[in-house]
Amino acid sequence: MSNEGFTRWLSLHAYGIVTRTLFGPGTHPRVMRRRFERFGATSRRRLLARHPGLVFAEHAVGPLRVESVHAGSPERAVLYLHGGAFVMGSPASYRSRAARMAYRCRAELFVPDYRLAPEHPFPAALEDAVAAWRHLRTLRRDWPLFVAGDSAGGGLALSLMLRLRDLGEPLPDGAILMSPSVDLDEPGGHGEEPGTDLWLTREHLRQWFRHYVGQADPAHPLVSPVRASLAGLPPFLLLAGADELLLEEGRRMVDRALSAGVDARLLVGDGMQHDWPLTLPWLPESRHAWKVIASFVDEHASQSWRPGAAA
Fold it and tell me: Is 203 an annotated catalytic residue?
């Protein structure tokens, strides 16, 4: 095995051991939340010491707090909906990831501190996402605007676009969805579990998502967007690891979107696991993914996807 191959193998397996140890299917959401923040939160001071060109700002949308970051001279804005199975995650624990995306995409990223389950089940997170999007449109009305998210946040980004479409409100110019959870009714797909996912099992997903679903129907299209009518959605790029449990959901999402006339693209990371561009950014596969993401943003920042609009 080459040095590069060994680094890849060690990175994937070590992260898997840590995540399965700290975040078990039956671990209480508040315990997971504390652990996620303890190991993932990064202070602004620490990031600024390493990257003095970063610019942070605070925004308030009623009781909702939104943190923004850019790396100087942004040309577009992204509403980023963090992952964490709807029970954990925050702007602090996604600060370094948001800064990386802001730099790579020449964008200003807005990360809302949306309400978490089980204290706030569906539709609380979606309501906060809608409020944050409306605020972003007010602040950056003349910029190309995107929505992005990973894992639960990727599914929430799709639910947001569906909700905006149904309300007749302006939609993003495009979306970037990393390992999104799009089927909370049957998370992880059908049939025999592949067994290649080092981080997640169907039991993880079932136990965690029940906190968010609460009393709602898990097959509701705003809970499980893969079950929605997708016509009229903006272009999106969906990334999924070849060895992760959520790949089947991602494939179904892209297939259904293409059938509905949506410009949907799929990037499968060979040998990769859940959220690999975010969790393992040093891998060559992650660097390639970021190039594809930046290219997608550049493409759709310079043209409108809307029928009849000028390119």
Answer: no
Burial class (CB in 10 A: 0-12, 13-18, 19+), 308: exposed
Yes or no: is domain 3-301 CATH 3.40.50.1820? yes
Catalytic position from the list 90, 93, 151, 286: 151
- Clarify whether 299 is annotated catalytic: no
Residue of 108, 274, 286, 300 with catalytic role: 274
Say how far apart CA 20 and CA 67 lie, in whole Å: 29
List the domain boundaries for the chain: 3-301
Phi, psi dihedrals of residue 242, rounded to the nearest 5°: -60, -25
CA distance 168 to 153: 22
pLDDT tens across the length of the chain (311 residues): 788 889 999 999 999 999 999 999 999 999 999 999 999 999 999 999 999 999 999 999 999 999 999 998 999 999 999 999 999 999 999 999 999 999 999 999 999 999 999 999 999 999 999 999 999 999 999 999 999 999 999 999 999 999 999 999 999 999 999 999 999 999 998 778 888 999 999 999 999 999 999 999 999 999 999 999 999 999 999 999 999 999 999 999 999 999 999 999 999 999 999 999 999 999 999 999 999 999 999 999 988 666 544 33
Mark residue 90 as left, alpha or beta (left: phi above 0; alpha: psi -120 to 50; beta: remaining): beta
Q: Which member of 224, 244, 286, 300 is catalytic?
A: 244
Question: DSSP secondary-structure letter at 225?
Answer: G
CB of 265 closer than 8 Å to CB of 237: yes
- 302 assigned to active site: no
